[in-house]
Write a structure and sequence with these properties.
Structural class of chain A: alpha+beta
Number of helices of chain A: 17
CATH class of the largest domain in chain B: Mainly Alpha
CATH superfamily of the largest domain in chain B: Cytochrome c-like domain
Radius of gyration of chain B: 35 Å
Strand order of the largest sheet of chain B: 1-2
Order of helices and strands of chain B: EEEHEEHHHHHHHH
Oligomer: heterodimer
Number of domains of chain B: 3
Strand content of chain A: 15-25%
Structural class of chain B: mainly alpha
CATH architecture of the largest domain in chain B: Orthogonal Bundle
Distance between the termini of chain A: 82 Å
Radius of gyration of chain A: 32 Å
Largest interface: A-B, 34 and 37 residues
Helix content of chain A: 40-55%
Shape of chain A: elongated
Largest sheet of chain A: 5 strands, antiparallel
Largest sheet of chain B: 2 strands, antiparallel
Distance between the termini of chain B: 91 Å
CATH topology of the largest domain in chain B: Cytochrome Bc1 Complex, Chain D, domain 2
Strand content of chain B: 5-15%
Chain lengths: ~475, ~290
């Protein structure tokens, strides 16, 4: 049903400012701990040192883009091992499926950087300007010295957090102490300052002003999650069959006394009593607020609680609430968990069986072979050796073939190659088949290159073919 | 806080689009969205002033920054050249024989030489230097004019039978079709088949032996193993520039061959000549 359009619609709809009230309770405490935990990981990680010897950086977690290396404590990832990162990303994806299916929007409510930083910004705001009512009064007050002082103090503190956020980010990409010194003395690369500026601006704006609008308008995740959740997924919900009809204490049948505590504490500015909605990030602060109120008026807790839609008819019929575990322990979640752990176990196994010596070989295909003056057929190969350790190593090259073909290295009379620490080399290798050998006349015959480290029993092989005249 | 005046969804106008009973609301944008939109418009004005934007008949307005993608490529090339200036100077100062001893220099020469080869040489000698009929294979172990670094460099600098360069390598095989009878040429061809260990007519080859000594040995040598001073090919080995079968050999003797290679001195830089020399030398046939 369309309404008659009498005046042009507004160009924009202003966001309603939200002033979350301070609340205490179990979930609030959990969120404080998680905030401290996640922020600590973020800010401290780049400063952890990890000794890898003289040739390698001693930063525990470092994304070295210039040299195409990723260091994570004892693990060092080269570009050709990017599948580890891919595996982790897939695990992160399936992990989000798992958590959404089991616990609803738990990521949004507790661990999303937008939530954590907004929480931190609101903490600063409350510390500077006071709790909800003072903040509303301040908003409505005319500009005065006091208002300007409070606003500037708040913005200044937000800006500091923003700078620290952007600052910590760049430390993941370069040696943190060196970069900090360079940043302070103005010698760091432009990209470092630029990144910090962008991160500072986005943190300041997203955490200070956009807040819940990021979740409601910008983030695709709520939409994806809406498709991922089913009627058994946990959400934060209002037991309207217990609360309604709401009204003033003592004047109504329902437990809800319409005190608005749940609305006042909500960082998203929604009313959970309207039911499940896209704005709700299930931060559970309304549960704390309502439980506190229920205790004061002597009613049982849990008017607002974690529950699943499937429980509603049961509870309406008078059954007690189902336990949270019954929603988590179900087939769908086990399948997600199974997939998740399968990839995880696969990655760990791959990590342990991977070698610190890499060998790949690429036969010359243009030409496939060269006929020498005595009729000998010669093939050339590009042998690439990667040394993933901090020491230079010497390798002996040999081949295994059906005929005893001769092997030779370009540029040296020996069959030894030296590979620098944490690096790789290309060595041109020749294999010769005398004209009477089968390999010289076959189309292709198998060749195995053996690469043996001189000073240890580390060896590896790589298979390829010898191309003959192929009659 | 003031009581929110909540609009019901029914109170919003719709765009009039209906699909399967689903109507599209015409709701206002959030403020930040609208402002971002305005900001983009402002940005686009600045962008049009700073960068090429408005198409004209012959190109577009250049913009204050005078930016062009070609210019950017040139900047990258200049930057790489500047980065390589030091090692290029080192390459020019290093004798050809000593390049291989310096790992960095060798890598620089191989990479640069490979690029030069693909640009200027691959048209005739093939992308893999494998050659073609009439164009020598540079990977094998036989060289017409010598396969050490100096010999290769000389060939590249001055070319082969190139009349634009005084120092070019030059030799010319006579057209024996104008000198000998066809039976004699047939005998000669059979003799060449014999010295290269191929199937041949023994009696014809025996006649050819004497003819070879008279007509061919001066350049190709008594034993038919060739002479690099004159670019005369070794006829006893398994490598043939034009082909080693009776028909092709007969053709070669009758009409002779006259392969030409351009001189590259002056067309590419000295550093490039050094690079491509080193590159060709390390392909497997270098002496």
């Amino acid at each position: 049903m369309t309404t008659q359009q009498t005046e042009p619609p507004k160009l924009f709809e202003a966001g309603e400012p939200v002033f979350p009230q301070r609340v205490s309770g179990w979930f609030r405490r959990l969120k404080w701990w998680l905030m401290g935990f996640t922020l600590s990981i973020y800010y401290i990680t780049p400063w952890i040192r990890w000794d890898r010897g003289a040739n390698l950086p001693d930063q525990a977690v470092l994304i070295d883009l210039a040299n195409a290396r990723f260091y994570f404590f004892w693990i060092e990832i080269w570009p050709h091992e990017f599948y580890f990162v891919v595996g982790l990303l897939i695990m992160a994806g399936i992990g989000l499926f798992l958590f959404t299916s089991a616990l609803g929007r738990v990521w949004c409510g507790y661990a999303c950087p937008q939530t954590v930083w907004t929480d931190l910004f609101i903490l600063v705001e409350r510390w500077v300007e006071g709790d909800r009512n003072e903040r509303i009064r301040l908003l409505r007050a005319k500009w005065s010295f006091r208002k300007a002082r409070l606003r500037l103090t708040k913005w200044f503190l937000w800006l500091l957090i923003g700078i620290a956020t952007g600052g910590a980010w760049v430390f993941y990409f370069a040696d943190a102490p060196t970069l900090l010194r360079d940043l302070m003395t103005g010698q760091a690369a432009f990209i470092a300052y630029g990144t910090i500026a962008v991160m500072t601006a986005t943190t300041f704006i997203f955490g200070g002003f956009l807040r819940e609008q990021v979740c409601t308008y910008m983030c695709p995740w709520p939409r994806i999650q809406a498709a991922m959740m089913d009627e058994y997924s946990l959400t934060v919900a209002y037991r309207d069959w217990r609360g309604e009809p709401r009204g003033k204490l003592g004047k109504t049948e329902g437990d809800c006394i319409d005190c608005m505590a749940c609305v006042n504490v909500c960082p998203q500015g929604i009313d959970i009593r309207d039911g499940q909605q896209v704005g709700c990030i299930t931060c559970a602060l309304c549960i704390d607020a309502c439980d506190n109120m229920m205790e004061k008026i002597g009613r049982p807790r849990g008017l607002i609680d974690y529950c699943a839609i499937s429980d509603e008819p049961l509870e309406r019929a008078g059954n007690p609430p189902k336990s949270i575990w019954s929603h988590i322990m179900r087939l769908r979640n086990f399948i997600y968990f199974g997939l998740w752990s399968l990839i995880g176990v696969g990655l760990v196994v791959a990590l342990f069986i991977r070698s610190d010596l890499g060998a790949t070989v690429k036969p010359d295909r243009n030409p496939r072979f060269v006929t020498l003056s005595d009729g000998t057929i010669r093939n050339a190969y590009d042998l690439k050796l990667s040394n993933q350790t901090g020491e230079a190593r010497v390798f002996h090259i040999s081949i295994k073939t059906e005929d005893s073909l001769r092997v030779d290295l370009e540029g040296t009379d020996e069959l030894n190659v030296s590979v620098p620490a944490n690096g790789s080399i290309h060595q041109r290798v020749y294999i010769f088949a005398k004209p009477e050998y089968a390999a010289a006349n076959a189309n292709t015959s198998p060749v195995r290159f053996w690469v043996d480290e001189r000073d240890s029993d580390v060896r590896t092989y790589v298979d390829t073919v010898f191309a003959g005249k192929g009659k | 806080m003031s009581k929110k005046i909540k609009l019901n969804d029914e109170d919003y106008p719709t765009t009039g689009h209906v699909w399967d009973g689903i109507r599209e609301y015409d709701k206002p944008m959030p403020r930040w969205w609208l402002y971002t939109f305005y900001l983009c418009i402002v940005f686009s004005i600045g962008y049009m002033i700073a960068y090429p934007a408005i198409p004209l008949l012959n190109g577009a307005t250049p913009g204050l920054l005078k930016y062009s993608t070609r210019g950017e490529v040139q900047q990258h090339i200049d930057k790489v050249n500047a980065q390589n200036a030091e090692i290029e100077a080192k390459l020019l100062a290093t004798p050809l024989e000593s390049i291989g001893a310096d790992v960095d220099l060798a890598r620089f020469a191989t990479a640069g030489g490979g690029a030069v080869f693909l640009t200027y040489c691959a048209q005739c000698h093939g992308a893999g230097a494998q050659g073609a009929k009439g164009y020598p294979n540079l990977q094998d172990d036989q060289w017409l004019w010598g396969g050490d670094l100096e010999a290769i460099a000389t060939t590249i600098r001055h070319g082969i039978r190139n009349d634009t360069d005084e120092d070019t390598r030059f030799s010319q095989m006579p057209k024996f079709g104008e000198i000998l009878e066809s039976e004699e040429i047939n005998s000669l061809a059979n003799y060449v088949l014999k010295v290269s260990n191929q199937e041949h007519d023994a009696s014809l080859a025996a006649t050819g032996n004497a003819l070879f000594a008279d007509n061919c040995a001066a350049c190709h040598g008594e034993t038919a193993t060739g002479d690099r001073e004159q670019g005369a090919p070794d006829l006893t080995d398994a490598i043939w520039l034009y082909g080693g079968d009776l028909e092709t050999i007969t053709q070669t003797i009758t009409n002779s061959r006259f392969g030409v290679m351009p001189a590259w001195q002056g067309r590419i830089t000295d550093a490039q000549i050094k690079q491509v020399t080193f590159y060709v030398h390390q392909l497997g046939g270098g002496e």
